[in-house]
Amino acid sequence: MITDSRTSPALPLSPAEVPAQAHRNGRRSLAVVGVNHALHDGYTDMIYVLLPVWQAEFGLGYVALAVLRSLYAGALAGLQMPAAALADRFGVRAVLTLGTLLGAGGYALAGASGGLVGLCVALIVSGAGSSTQHPLASAVIARAYGSAARGPLGTYNFTGDLGKASPAAPRRLPAHPGRLAPRPVAGGRRRSGRRPRRRGPPAV
What we know:
Elements (H helix, E strand, L loop, with lengths): L16 H42 L3 H17 L1 H11 L1 H21 L3 H15 L2 H13 L4 H16 L19 E2 L2 E2 L14
Antiparallel strand pairs: 1-2
Helix pairs in contact: 1-2, 1-4, 1-5, 1-6, 1-7, 2-5, 3-4, 3-6, 4-5, 4-6
């Protein structure tokens, strides 16, 4: 009797094939979450590259810059537990994918925003997206490797360090042509585009 391989049930793996299959699945999971970790850590450190740009664009002081940084960091830290709850309901893959899109979309929104309020909203959106990465990716590795997860977790942390090195590249590029590009500096002061006022003769 000939059976169609497309309709017949898959044969169970032999005991010798189970460890090899688990190893392949673990390496695939590690590669996916490693790339995801590099992206999100790059998003997190990108803000340090853009803070001087926003300072020049909006005339912000150091306190305002700290508030902008806190908006991103607060959303990232405060939404990690809700992200884990969403993963239990909708699946880890869906939540990680959505978080990565939100992390990148937040910076795209920041580049397109023309005001400070839009910038604040964009940083909260990006921080919310990055909040999905650490708790979910660590759980994926622990589930894939079990008691042997110490080495893969070290590799996973190393991919985050690679992502932190990536924001150094955009320092040479304008964040937004004609809007968020760094202003030229002369004599230690930013050029405002205004003509210097002429001083009259000294009073006698």
